[in-house]
Design a protein that fits this description.
The complex is a heterodimer. Chain A is mainly alpha-helical. Chain A has 6 helices and no strands. Chain A has one domain (2-213): Phosphate transport system protein phou homolog 2, domain 2 (Methane Monooxygenase Hydroxylase, Chain G, domain 1, Up-down Bundle), CATH 1.20.58.220. The longest helix of chain A is centred in the first third of the chain and has 36 residues, at 2-37. The radius of gyration of chain A is 19 Å and the shape is elongated. Chain B starts with a helix and ends with a helix. Chain B contains 19 helices and 6 strands. In chain B, the strands form 3 sheets. Chain B has a two-stranded antiparallel sheet. A two-stranded antiparallel sheet of chain B has the order 3-4. Chain B has a two-stranded antiparallel ribbon with strand order 5-6. Chain B has 3 domains: 2-55 and 106-296, no CATH class; 339-396; 401-476, no CATH class. Chain B is globular and about 75 Å long. In chain B, helix 7 runs parallel beside helix 9. The chains are: A mainly alpha, B mainly alpha.
Chain lengths: 214, 479
């Protein structure tokens, strides 16, 4: 009995650690974009490497949790839902790390007039990720609070769509090269994709929460 | 019968836990086996006593035939996919034996048993409803992590499974071995000066082992089938269902609990073997109602009610047929013929009980060997009710008893009888009685401590007194 409870506590801590990685990843992503907009290459590079490291650690923790859930046949009724949530939320972190890497590789030219809006877009996407993490944490302990956090995630996702649309419109009306316009559109899309991925996770989470309440 | 009880009812205890992979089959069978045996030996006597009140099958071949017929009825109903209750089958079997041999059925005991068939699922539903509401309210406040809840559920399933196995053994061993008590071939076994295993306890141990073997050998397939197909509920709900079932079975089996309730002035719960399956059905409905009442399949409920009625009727019919075959084709003694005679004393006693004795005049002094011939003769005199027949049989049954205080002291000792009670026996030393009730009356006249107490609050004393009477009758029986 003591062994079972000890294993359970360890697994809970691992799951918490995994979601801590997601949260930290979102914060580092936000800071990274800010530093890129400030043309602070050195710090931007540091944050990019840090985000890559969080992404690798999160993958390792996720695989370990999945193994334990199966080997110890824990939570048999909802194991599928929990594993699905872990895997889909991992895509959000992957998307954040990939976006930052793309910034480092392609070094897009962002006009000064568009930089504040890019920061707003990043804020909205990061906020949707943070609400997504809170929603999943609530699923594990307080399923009745999941709905509130899902609503917030949806709100920030809509915000990111709105801001992204504004950026694209402005970019194509600005007197810059077509290649730069297309580049700006590409990076806008990829930052929006982070919020979209967070929304997909929440759609899955909503069903899982309903199943848990039954 | 023990094997089929274990294979079928073991499911009710650990079915969902094993099918949902919360518990390994090996762990489940080990816990079930150990606690079923414990429950059978430690607490099985109460319900067995009630079954014997309904009808005492007094020949080994008769007991064997009735149990076999009941097992066949259970198997047949199971093949027809009707949910079956071994408890109800056994009651039907006993009534069948009474019918075949002409022995009267104690309507009071029969009514008590039938009442519990109705009470059992209702009580289980009530327990499950209250437990579900209570536990969900507590969990909502506790804000437990899913994984912690899972761990506690597993621990709960093991603990409750053990309790449920104990209750199953205690309550249902009467179905397996109760009919053999009167015809038991086992005597008391003294292992050490401090440890004596009575014949009944040995019988129950054998029955408990049979149940444990049934769980181990056949339970796995049945557990996986029933756990997944009969009702898909969460492990936590399953825990509450099993707990409710265990509580109901324990309520109807525990003599200590009964005496505690009586001491508080609350009504006594009849100690009767109740159906574990019906308790589970009731508990599942209770959980369904607690969740809002949606999803209850009333068609399935109807089939269950049909099985409830069909089982005892089928077992009764099969018992009668089987007894006829065993007696007339295999020429085995399915009943030990008890002599009956309407002596002057028995007629006077019946008059005092309010039975009209004028129609009995043609039968006075005549000796009848066997209940069937006596019943037939009685039917020709007047249309007696079953209740009146039961009284006439009780007072007319011949059972020659000679009081021997030396044998009483040696066999019963000072622990069972009080000083006053023993003095009463000594005062009657050497006297012979032709009816059991005459000895009982003489003991009452010799000492107040042999008199049942009237009024509320004395049920425990009267029950113990009844047990003492049951012990002294075979002690003084003329060999």
């Amino acid at each position: 009995m003591a062994l079972l409870l000890r294993k359970t506590r360890e697994l809970e801590m691992q799951i918490d650690e995994y979601f801590d990685m997601l949260l930290k990843g979102s914060l580092v992503f936000r800071e990274g974009i800010k530093l890129y907009m400030e043309d602070n290459e050195e710090e931007f590079e540091h944050h990019r490497v840090q985000l890559d490291s969080f992404e690798s650690k999160a993958d390792a923790i996720r695989r370990s949790v999945e193994n334990k859930l199966y080997l110890d046949t824990l939570i048999p009724e909802i194991r599928g839902d929990v594993l699905g949530l872990l895997e889909s939320s991992d895509k959000v972190l992957n998307q954040s790390a990939d976006t930052l890497n793309q910034f480092a590789v392609e070094m897009p030219m962002i006009p000064e007039s568009l930089k504040p809006m890019f920061l707003d877009l990043t804020e909205a996407s990061a906020a949707s990720v943070e609400c997504m993490v809170l929603a999943i944490r609530a699923y594990f302990r307080e399923p009745e609070k999941v709905r509130d956090q899902i609503s917030k995630t949806m709100f920030y996702e809509k915000q990111s769509d709105y801001i992204g649309d504004k950026i694209k419109r402005l970019a194509f009306r600005t007197k810059i090269k077509l290649s730069e316009k297309i580049h700006i559109r590409y990076f806008t899309y990829h930052i929006e994709l982070i919020a979209d991925s967070a929304e997909d996770v929440c759609d899955r989470l909503a069903i899982a929460a309903i199943k848990r309440s039954l | 019968m023990g094997w089929s009880l274990g294979a079928n009812d073991g499911v009710n205890v650990f079915g969902t836990a094993v099918a949902s992979r919360m518990l390994r089959f090996g762990t489940a069978t080990l816990i079930a086996g150990v606690f079923v045996i414990l429950g059978a030996v430690v607490s099985g006597a109460g319900p067995a006593r009630t079954l014997n009140d309904l009808g005492a099958i007094n020949a080994l071949a008769g007991s064997f035939t009735v149990v076999l017929a009941c097992a066949a009825a259970v198997a047949w109903m199971t093949r027809m996919s009707l949910p079956v209750s071994t408890s109800q089958a056994i009651v039907g079997g006993i009534v069948g034996w009474n019918f075949f041999t002409g022995s009267p059925t104690d309507i009071a005991s029969f009514s008590k048993i039938v009442l519990t068939w109705v009470l059992c699922p209702i009580l289980a539903a009530a327990f499950a409803f209250v437990l579900f509401k209570g536990v969900t309210a507590i969990l909502r406040r506790a804000k437990l992590h899913i994984l912690h809840l899972d761990a506690y559920t597993r621990i709960g399933l093991i603990a409750v499974g053990a309790f449920a196995s104990y209750s199953l053994g205690a309550n249902n061993i009467a179905n397996v071995m109760g009919l053999f008590i009167s015809a038991s071939p086992f005597g008391d076994l003294t292992l050490t000066p401090f440890l004596t295993i009575t014949g009944t306890e040995q019988l129950f141990l054998l029955g408990g082992l049979a149940i444990a073997v049934g769980v181990f050998t056949y339970g796995h397939r049945v557990m996986l089938t029933v756990g997944n197909e009969l009702y898909k509920i969460t492990p936590l709900s399953a825990l509450l269902v099993v707990l409710s079932q265990a509580l109901v079975l324990f309520l109807f089996a525990s003599e200590n609990l009964e005496q505690w309730l009586i001491s508080l002035g609350l009504p006594a719960i009849p100690l009767v073997p109740v159906s574990a399956t019906q308790a589970v059905v009731g508990a599942v409905i209770g959980v369904g109602l607690a969740k809002g009442g949606k999803g209850i399949n009333y068609k399935v409920l109807g089939r269950i009610a049909l099985g409830w009625v069909a089982t005892p009727l089928t077992a009764c019919a099969l018992s009668v047929v089987a007894l006829f075959v065993v007696q007339n084709v295999f020429e085995q003694k399915v009943v030990t013929l008890t002599p009956h005679k309407l002596t002057q004393a028995s007629v006077n006693a019946l008059e005092q009980e309010g039975i009209a004795t004028k129609p009995l005049n043609p039968l006075r002094g005549k000796l009848f060997i066997g209940a069937a011939s006596f019943r037939s003769a009685l039917r020709n005199t007047s249309p007696w009710t079953e209740k009146e027949l039961f009284k006439i049989f009780s007072y007319a049954e011949l059972d020659t008893l000679k009081v021997d205080s030396t044998r009483a002291k040696a066999q019963l000792g000072d622990d069972l009888l009080s000083l006053e009670q023993m003095r009463a026996i000594v005062s009657l030393h050497g006297q012979t009685f032709v009816h059991r009730w005459q000895l009982d009356s003489a003991l009452v006249n010799a000492s107040e401590e042999w008199m049942p107490k009237t009024g509320s609050g004395h049920d425990a004393f009267n029950k113990t007194l009844k047990d003492k009477y049951r012990l002294i009758h075979p002690t003084f029986r003329k060999r």
